[in-house]
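Hey everyone, long-time lurker, first post.

I ran two proteins through the pipeline my lab uses and got sequence/structure pairs for each. Pasting them in order. The first:
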Amino acid sequence: MGAPKEMKKGESMVPPPPEDWEGWKEVKYNPAFKGTGCGTYSLYLHHSREIFLDHISSFFFHLGSLIQSKPNLTIFLSLFITFLFIPGIFFLKAENDALYLWVPQETRVWSNFMYVRDNFGGQKRVTSLLITSFDGDEDLINGEAIRSMIHIHNNLTISYENIDGRTFQDFCVKDGQNDCEISNFLSIWDYNASKVEDDKHTLLYQINQYIDNVPASIQFGGLKYAPDGSGVLLGFKAARMQYYCISDVPDFTHYNNTSLKTWGPVTWWFSKLWQVEDWEKTIMIELNDNWSEKKESKILNVECVTKRSVDDEVYRLVIDDFSLFLGAIFCIILWLALTFGRQNIIEARFLITWTVAIEMACCLIFSYGAMGYMNLLGVPGVKVCSLNAMVPFIIAGVSVDDMIVIEDFFNKAEGKKNRMAECLKAAGVAITTTSLTSIAAFFTGTFCDMPGVRSFCLCCFLAFTWDYVLNVTLFPALILIDQKRIDANRHFLCPCIEVDEEHKARERSSSMSAHVERQKSTKSIRSLKSLSERGSSFSRSAYISIRGYKEKPGAVEHFMYAHYGAFLQYETVQMWVLILFSISALILGFMSYFAGVGLTIAQVLPYDSYIIDFVESVDSYFPTSIDQLRIVVRDLDYTDSDQVSNMFDYFSFVQRYDGIEGNVGMAQGSWYTNYAYFLYSNDHHIYDDFHTYLQEWFDNDGEPFKSDVICTDDEAGNCIDVTSSIYKVWNNSPDDTMETYNVQKDLNEGVERYGLSPNSYIFSENFLFAETDWKMYSYICWNLFLTIVIVGIVMLIFTDNISCFFITLMVIFIDADLMGMMYFLDINISAISFICILMSIGLSVDYCVHIGHAFTHSDGEAPNIRLVEAVKMMGTSVLKGGMTTFLGTIVLAFSSSDAFRTFFKMMFMTVVFGMLHGLIALPVFLTTFYNLAGRAAHFEKSKDQVGSKLQKGARKKKEIEKGRHKELAGVALELNIRGEEEEGGGDFQREVVREGSDKTVTFGVVREESDKTVTFGVFGKESSSFEFDDNPLRN
């Protein structure tokens, strides 16, 4: 053992540290590092959390051991359980009707709709024809054009058959006189072309008589009136004709009747619905595809849209974009191939990257199959829609993040005896946290009363749950099998080929060089503090043990540590980050209130869809949309003159309202006015004899009005009273849904104001979408609040209190920024954007939780050091995860549907804002908080025994001054300390020899104290360049 260095008087006992030494660390006393808050509750929560996480880590350790011992059995069981859900796919129910997808079903308007649908004829399948002149700009009031229209009408209603030989007459909605319900002006000539004259004046006279009863704007577009203001119609450029078929939707889809609920696909095949849809297909082929071959095409231009048109176009959209979807999967696989393993012919993990496609397929089978089994068990509201087509890309883009983490920890555990057990022990809790947050976000969405959102969230919830299971079972098993290939020096593309000796030597040399580099960069394994001492989560012991085998940092990781992390340490940078991110969230959150609202039919169809052309043509000829308002009067005593008078007063109010066309009851009058006329003309009293002649009138003149009333029947089945009835009136519906909502609100407030029953109301299907749009913003905010609360609870279980708070704050910031950017990108608030915002919660947590985890578990005592360690440790993984999510959704930018492109915009912004907040905002917010907490705690003389390093340092100094020798914690693992202490000025040095060696190490400790900071420095020198890497006073 060498003699201590001889010191001159007045000279410091401690030689100056080397200039390139990085051991000086500024340690700010911070009780937050020890725990997660103050008070008994926080300590109890912290202790309970650590016990729970210890059990989770132990579970993953045993799971990894089991997988490592039986990887083939693990793969078999994973796939076998998945395939059990394949039969459930055949029981899936599809839905593309906007009414049953994007309208909340817990509202008064929806209840009104259901009452009308179930009691007054239900929905109708509408086939719409828009007829214009050949060049689109000529007047249609001429004999040739009208005769051609009649020919088209007769072909549509009589000649065109489905595959079963049935015509429109077999499917049409029939009125009380057993005539098909049709809306067009050709009834003027009884649909007989021979009755049409060529004289235009005669035609004008006949048409003007017709519009005296039916508003012209309902069926005619491009109107031309007499200039004298008389209202005489002189011409029109477009005619709209509508044909109504029975919905006959099988009861298992929309109705409560259970007689057809079982054997769903079989019932559907034999129902009239299939036959109606096939007839509609015939119509579209004849009037759209083959129209140019017909002689009428030289005179007229016809555009046709049927009920099934939307379904067909959505199906075409999926088929046309299928190649893009495959491209997304290929991009992700290619990206993983470049990041998994080492880039040589043996250690490259190209085959493992195809696990993405395997897991995606398994997750779809599981989710769709589970939803099918739910339908089989009678669970209501479980349907799939076109939006579910985006689920595979979300799985492929998001689940890869967990694969990257597992593969990364598997590489870091190289050399471990039970490698996969150590890998899952270190990575299991982290991926469980990120997966559960996404699962929780989608699970919250399953309680949404908007069926389309609920369907999508249910599908994602099931898919993400199974993806998590596969990521901790199937994927590790496949990695182990691939590792056997690597150990056997098999080719990365074809495992049956063994690499020749020359390549073996080259690869072995490359691996040995990498191993030497890892050994050089490997730090000494220090004693591990218990979880209760460390005050952290995510199984720190497993995390540190894996880091002991950490590979040499790559270029990106070096940049994160040496440049990016150092840049974020500047106080000026941190100040601007705090200001900019906070102000951005406030401003963009405020701007979100001004974003547009609503979802149009064009947004869910291919950009070249004929339906979009049809809608644009209708808008050009019909500037206002005409719809039918239905006044539902319930619980009215028709023998009470006052109540009847109140009803007619309300009708007068409705007829005076802006936009109302014609009178209540329309051209033929209402059932009540016709019945009252019957009573009056037969010398019966309108009130006293109201009940007496009801059945007689309905059996004769009143038969067409039977569907407008709900009667109370006597024992013989005769109608003796009317409990509910419907009155119809035409309305020019505003294009703006907010204006439509105001119309609905005003007209329904009038019901109460005029003394009608509270159960009475006025209804239109447009009111459903208007109220949905009006409530959408508050609806989104409320559901976001619930989702964030649930995600926050999940985070509180797996992370410390402070990290949980700031990660949740980052999620709120991200969603505020996302909703604000919708205003600037002209993205409306709709069901699609609602789903994207809901999904962004789960995705943004992924970007933040890893950084927060790394910050909590880094080795640095000072917050700034923890910041650098956090971005160095997980910054690269966060970037990789963001890139895979981006690659999984970028193809949607080239989709032919505006809905898919909107989805891409929202996902792109989620990735950008998620990485910005995860890599910049979160570490800076955490660093600032701990710096402020440390400074505040320095002035407190707390007696709390959470552990004060300042008090420990003071006790250590007193012990040194009294001459008591103590071995320093941390150093004792590497050195057997021998020698005597030399005191002077609070500094000291000692000379020790490493056990089993004659090499001498001289080390020293310098302690400097200011009013706010206690600074420790450590240095060491020896002939063999032995170096300490820890603070000897840390413990």
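...and the second, right after it:
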Amino acid sequence: MSNFDMMKDEWSLLGHLGETAEYNVYRDPNVTLVKIRQFAESMVEAIFSLEQIEVDSECSLIKRLRILEWRNVLEPELLEVFHNIRKHGNLAVHTNYGDFTTALNSVRWAHFLANWFMEVYVSYDYEGKAFSNPEKPQDNPNSTIDELNEKIKLLEAILESERLDYGLKLQKLSKNSGNIINKNVTKVRRSQSQKYLKNKPLSEKETRLNFIDEQLRNAGWLADTDKIAWSQGERPEKNKNKAIAEVPVNGGYADYALFIGLDLVGIIEAKQYNFSIAGHIEQAKTYAKNIKDMDEYEVPFIDGEYKVPFIYATNGRSYIEQFKEQSGIWFWDSRYPEKTSFPLEGWHSPDDLKEKLKVDENKANAELINEPYPDFVERYYQIEAIKAVEKGLADNKRRMLLAMATGTGKTRLAIALMYRLIKTKRVRRVLFLVDRRSLGIQAADALGDIKIENLSVADIYDVKSIGEPDPETATKIHISTVQGMVKRLFYSDDRILSVGTYDFIIVDEAHRGYLYDKEMTDDEILFRDQQEYISQYRRVIDYFDATVVGLTATPALHTTKIFNAPIYTYSYSDAVIDGFLVDHEPPYRFETELLKNGITFAAKSDVDIWDEEKKVFDKAYLEDELSFEVDNFNKKVITEDFNKVILEKLTDYLDTDDDGKTLIFAANDLHADMVVRLLKKAYEDKGIPVHDDAIIKITGYIKNPEEAIKRFKNEKYPNIVVTVDLLTTGIDVPKIINLVFLRRVRSRILYDQMLGRATRLCPKIGKTSFYIFDAVHLYDHLKNITDMKPVVVNTNLSLMELYQRALDATDNETYEYFKNELIAKMQQKKQRIDRTEENNIEISASFGTLDSWLLDLKSMSQKQLGAEKDKIDSFDRLHTNSKYPNIKYISKHPDKLLEVIQTYGPKNMKPNDYLEEFSKFINDNINKIAALNIIVNRPKDLTFNELRSIQLELKRNHYDENMLNSAWQKAKKEYIVADIISFIRQAAIGSALVSHETRIENAMEKVYNMKSWTPKQMEWLKRIRAQLLSTPVLAPTAQVYFDETTVWREKGGYNGMKRRIGEDIDKVIELLNDELYIS
């Protein structure tokens, strides 16, 4: 009898592969491993046919498994089994590897899969058979070696004849099952699969043999429940790392004990596969307290309550976030009793535990308090952010988020944090995780450039950069892309990185919430959609036993779900007010005829199209009228004349020889090429000579984009760069002073990241602000979208699954989230629906019109949406027009520029209206906002913090100095650069608007004339003047001003200034307070 007899009727090839593997377990384990791999590969091919998934016949097993993972066909536990078989089979094929224990385990795994396959794909009523160890030749005296060999030859002959039949069977299955598999069948299969995994009667012993032993071996431990057991005489040995089973303790036996040499370092409680596991760590803790004092091993913590530092509990199941109590490897470090236990994805390696034992977290936390900050982080908010992270570490937080505006020095902050944590031995090794190569290269450059006592961080510590091998023992910082780490951890046959490889992870640009808008490069196509990216990127950071800090300028909903709410925030408004970033001028808003009216193709006409898939131009016949609004310009419809009109006008504003640089955001790579061509032609038509290198595109499709980015940053040319997504995140080019939007985006996060490219200071070119040229009314489109509510389309869920999730939601936020996903996906489908189908459904399902119905869905309550099931089901069954599934329409409609205007505030106001709104806001709030009242009535009492608070409040309401000055100049035809205090007082009490500089010069003139000052005193008075030009506020008294203003406090505060200027210092500040705001 074979363990695989149940498959021989309908799936004989699988049955005979399993039987052949059994017969070879004792005779030739190598053959067994090869046959079991063939068994797994053949089963996966069958699953593809049964699930109606089309794939290239040359598609490898690892790629097929990945597709099944994407489609949620295989649960993590099944994937783990398939991958174990695949890896051992590959080793057997390529190195002639053959180990009896591994071979027997592979047969067990195959039997586990066989029972699953029978229950899910053959008969839902099938009851899985228990596994029996294959019969040893010596156990059957009637069977000779010759007979066994004959049996194996016969099986090989059967297999050879069945392989062709198997291929034909799969082809027939694919054809007979139709193009679309019944959704109910899919649902039942998934349910049956989950039921099998839940109810599979794996005993604790089987769980250990099938899963836990293999997992421990993969992590570097010698493990075998049957052989490496205390009862079998196995004992700890020097220079060997063993997971010994059934080790006696007072009151029982530990399922496993981990020994590094002779040192007992870990206790494992193992439970059977379908047990909830989190609570069973308490049993392991009990064993750790009751360790016997034995001669065979050393107990490092014999004097403590717990004799063993590392405590584990597991049921062998892969970690699943949604079922964390029922899965994963639960871990607790008994050296820090205030920490709670938590689940891991894998086992610590022996080296991981050795390194853990070297770290004294409490001692390191104390040292961090007194450790000086490196000179290269001198801004107050950077130090505050570092303190927040270090406090979080001391408070045992494992996930933290820093929200800091683009351009405020997050990379420097990260380097300072890494340096301090490594120096004090608070962490052993840091993973610096980025989402694209260019960011990793930029981080590596910074580590090589930033100096600490004349040595760079890369000189002090071993740093592995993008593309370098796995970290070595001495490596302290490793830079990697998310994509590279996903491949390394989950799709590679190389040695698996252990969960303790890194104990601290920094995720740069942690938002990554805008793939809904992205044109993905080859490297990024590793992920199907944003949900896939988030899932895999979260899987990476969950894999390691590490504290994780996310850095972002734009926290998104999914970001806070991963990292929790920010522990420290330093906003764009904060940075502008503090003078660390520049603000933008009022946007230039373009209006053209096509932009205003849209593009419409007439019914019953032929139109030119670009077939994206075939990369050819073609024609299509339109039965019905087809219209496009601006959000589809350059995406679904190629409109050269619109771009030509915009770019021709832009030449009036952009100088290719200017010191400042320009970044143009295009819709896709094809559009970027068009923009470069048309812009060069526009300059040529105006007779303006342009160097050919001055205008280029930098996208993920050019050769060596990293080199092009360096030239953009450091050299004169290129001066104008057209990009899609490559330069939207994390790229530091301070000379950018112009941003041009030629594409609509739907993500506020991406928009903020785009703006962030131009916010950095650049004194070298005298940059005080930057300019926005909005050719697609992007500012209007996004003004009401909040950062924390991105609409995300999960392409992996069907319409009905999204509908059901919306109905199942237990809170309004979750309901709205899935309802919006549902509507977004329906809108996408509507664009592809055949017009005849649309007419039919509008009549039969009583929609009215699809457009009005979809609009109504947005405002429906959960109960109302529940009543729409039949309509949504009808919509789901509509056939889409697949004749041209991936095309762009080519518009030859002429366009004309109507106007270019600067607009103010979220309402796109004219200058006079904006000033009137500001005046109304000030007068309405004088008695509501304390700091505003002080500015109007008692300006000499105003402190820096009060000024800062009112600036932030005005910013929140869309009022700032740049906008007000620009509006004043346009409305009054009067060029004055006034500060916010002057504008407030002018609006409230009608004070004459005097320029910021003039007001300060007039006040300082009075101070200069107070007495005859010495040259040194005059030098310090001029420093006060310079500080006032930067921050136009004093304080009620000289002592408060000099003691509480950072720049003066660092120079000795009030007493220091009194020594330099003399006893008249109080009179100086008093006089300035009187003169600065004379009405």
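Reply from user beta_strand_b:
Welcome! Quick read of the second one: Confidence is low (pLDDT under 50) at residues 513-530, 786-795. The two ends are 104 Å apart (CA to CA).
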